[in-house]
Design brief:
The chain is mostly helical. Strands 1-2 form a two-stranded parallel ribbon. It is built from 5 helices and 2 strands, in the order αβααααβ.
């Protein structure tokens, strides 16, 4: 009996971890600078979502919208133009990814407009549309 128990204790140490699930997202190749700028922008968007949710939790709906426009709205497009000499990350995105990125900027601006109405349910629906564009893109594309 003791031998069987000792044998069972050894089994987990010898077991191989399961293989990771396959990644079906489309690989997008781009130069290192553009990839790093895109990664930095995605991290800034995560921070922006945190601040937007903080504003909403405080009932500061219009402020949440203002912040969304300043950090993710259409007005932020092309911010890498100078450092990349007009060849920002969007220039290396396949058409579907570029369209999703443009839609994200548009829905951020739409959220900003809706937020000015100070109607929390409408603002949350608009924020849901915004986050849905991010999820769709991140589930479809990768750069590494």
């Amino acid at each position: 009996m003791l031998v069987i128990l000792m044998g069972l204790c050894v089994l987990p140490a010898q077991a191989q971890p399961p293989a990771p699930p396959p990644d079906h997202r489309q690989m997008v190749e781009m130069p290192e600078l553009q990839r790093e700028l895109l990664r930095q922008e995605m991290q800034e968007h995560l921070i922006a979502y945190q601040r937007i949710l903080d504003h909403l939790s405080r009932g500061e709906i219009a402020e949440a919208g203002d912040f969304a426009e300043q950090t993710m709205g259409v007005s932020t497009m092309g911010k890498h133009r100078e450092i990349t000499q007009g060849m920002g990350p969007g220039r290396f995105m396949p058409a579907g990814m570029r369209q999703m990125a443009f839609t994200m900027h548009e829905t951020a601006s739409e959220f900003a407009q809706v937020a000015q109405e100070e109607d929390m349910p409408k603002a949350l629906r608009a924020l849901h549309e915004l986050t849905s564009t991010c999820v769709g893109c991140h589930m479809s594309f990768r750069t590494r």
